Amino acid sequence: MRVVTYGFGMRSEMRRLGAAAAVVAAVLCLGACAPEDPGPKPSPDPTSTPLFASDEEALAAAEEAYGRYQAVSDAILMDGGANPERLLDVATQEKLEYEQRGYEELRSSGYTFTGSSTFDRMTLQSRDDATVSVYVCDDITSVDVLGQDGRSVVMPDRPDIFPRAVTFVSNGDRTLVVSNSDEWTGSNFCE
């Protein structure tokens, strides 16, 4: 796996702002034969009910969830990595555990983050009963990282807009939270 830096040595996930997400597909097999008198139909299994009625609805929920994720993550970064448990409002426990390594590195480095990340060109990759996966272009143009002396430590050739693949899961209702966010290693669809 290629590690991309923020321009000063921090891991790509710390940057958390483009990568291949796992494609999740559900297969539903239906029997071809039905009895002549089927009798009463059983209640539908709640786990087989689609999370969203349409691709548009799933994409809108993903856009909202990713915006919330970026806002919380930016706030943690601007606070020097303090109180990372705030991420649990917008991400899974596993995602928090992964991000905590970066937050600890941030605290020990003494770096300060300024500005806010954004995104555009989100497209639906897949959706099923439990997950939504998207491709997105993260934009960190307005994000700067300052060293202890107050000077920017961002490399001049840092890519400010880059592709990611993000997977969301439902938090028990129709609200999505980030479960995975990887830099896209294929062709750059954000250029």
Structure description:
The chain is of the alpha+beta class and 191 residues long. The chain has a single domain (19-24, 52-183), classed as Roll (Nuclear Transport Factor 2, Chain: A). 24% of the residues lie in helices and 23% in strands. The chain contains three helices and six strands; from the N terminus they run αααββββββ. A hairpin with a 5-residue loop joins strand 5 and strand 6.
Query: Count the strands?
Result: 6
Helix content: 10-25%
Low-confidence stretches: 1-45
CATH architectural group: Roll
Mean pLDDT: 78
What is the helix tally? Answer: 3
| Biggest beta sheet summary | 4 strands, antiparallel
| Widest sheet, order of strands | 2-3-5-6
The secondary structure category is alpha+beta
Determine Rg (CA atoms, Å).
20 Å
Question: In whole angstroms, how far apart are the ends?
Answer: 22 Å
Strand content: 15-25%
What overall form do the CA principal axes indicate? globular
Task: Write a brief structural summary.
The chain is α+β, with helices and mostly antiparallel strands and 191 residues long.
Keywords:
single chain; 191 residues; alpha+beta; Nuclear Transport Factor 2, Chain: A; four-stranded antiparallel beta sheet; 3 helices; 24% helix; disordered N terminus
